[in-house]
Automatic annotation (TrEMBL):
<keyword id="KW-0131">Cell cycle</keyword>
<dbReference type="GO" id="GO:0051301">
    <property type="term" value="P:cell division"/>
</dbReference>
<dbReference type="Pfam" id="PF05164">
    <property type="entry name" value="ZapA"/>
</dbReference>
<keyword id="KW-0132">Cell division</keyword>
<protein>
    <submittedName>
        <fullName>Cell division protein ZapA</fullName>
    </submittedName>
</protein>
<dbReference type="InterPro" id="IPR007838">
    <property type="entry name" value="Cell_div_ZapA-like"/>
</dbReference>
<dbReference type="InterPro" id="IPR036192">
    <property type="entry name" value="Cell_div_ZapA-like_sf"/>
</dbReference>
Amino acid sequence: MSEKLKIKLSIANRVYPLTIEASQEEGLRKAAKNIEYMIKQFEQSYSVRDKQDVLAMCALQFASQVEQKSIDKEHVNEHVEIKLKALNELLHSHLNS
């Protein structure tokens, strides 16, 4: 049975108590740290009215990174598939000759 932990994460001057799997702690703490860093970057770079705006900008930034990685992965997979088909055809041509 996996161990449950109770942790508190601070994001945008609010504390969020969470009950998590022990294996999730490092990732959640790193994510909270990245969000805090991004909040500071947005606040320094843009005229921001409130934390809601900054959090929305952070959410958009993180979501776009996830989507871009998915798009990039699809392109890599397509490239690999083309290369594998060419290699397969080459092998068949050598085996059948």
